[in-house]
C-alpha cells in the first residue's frame, strides 16, 4: 500500500513535469514566435528538471519500486518499521508542495 502511495504521487509529478516539457517543445516550434518570455522559459526548464528528478524519478524508483518489489524479492511480508515507512510516504506530498513554492520565486532560477 505504501508503494502505491509513492507511485501515485510520482505519476502526478511525472505528468506535471511532462506538461512543462511540452511547453518547452512548443516554444521551439517557430523561431520567430516565443510562446513564453525568456525569463519564464528559464523557469520552465529548471522546473522541468527539478520536478522530473524529485517528483517523479525518486518517488517512483526508490519509494514505489522499493516498497513494492523489495518485499516480493526477499519473500518478506513487509519492510522493517512499517509505520515510519508510511509516515515518509505521507510526508512526501507536503515536501513536494514546499519544493513547488521554492520554484515560484522566479529570481535566480535557471542558468
UniProtKB/TrEMBL annotation:
GO terms for molecular function: cytochrome-c oxidase activity; heme binding; metal ion binding. Keywords: Copper, Electron transport, Heme, Iron, Membrane, Metal-binding, Mitochondrion, Mitochondrion inner membrane, Respiratory chain, Transmembrane, Transmembrane helix, Transport. GO terms for cellular component: mitochondrial inner membrane. Its cofactor is heme. Pathway: Energy metabolism; oxidative phosphorylation. Pfam families: COX1. The chain crosses the membrane at residues 6-28, 40-69, 89-109. Its EC number is 7.1.1.9. GO terms for biological process: electron transport coupled proton transport; oxidative phosphorylation; respiratory electron transport chain. Residues 1-111 form the Cytochrome oxidase subunit I profile domain. It is a multi-pass membrane protein. It is found in: Mitochondrion inner membrane. Signal peptide: none annotated. It catalyses: 4 Fe(II)-[cytochrome c] + O2 + 8 H(+)(in) = 4 Fe(III)-[cytochrome c] + 2 H2O + 4 H(+)(out). PROSITE patterns: COX1 (PS50855). The keyword ATP-binding does not apply. InterPro entries: Cyt_c_oxase-like_su1_dom, Cyt_c_oxase-like_su1_sf, Cyt_C_Oxase_1. Component of the cytochrome c oxidase, the last enzyme in the mitochondrial electron transport chain which drives oxidative phosphorylation. The respiratory chain contains 3 multisubunit complexes succinate dehydrogenase (complex II, CII), ubiquinol-cytochrome c oxidoreductase (cytochrome b-c1 complex, complex III, CIII) and cytochrome c oxidase (complex IV, CIV), that cooperate to transfer electrons derived from NADH and succinate to molecular oxygen, creating an electrochemical gradient over the inner membrane that drives transmembrane transport and the ATP synthase. Belongs to the heme-copper respiratory oxidase family. This is Cytochrome c oxidase subunit 1. It comes from Fasciola hepatica (Liver fluke).
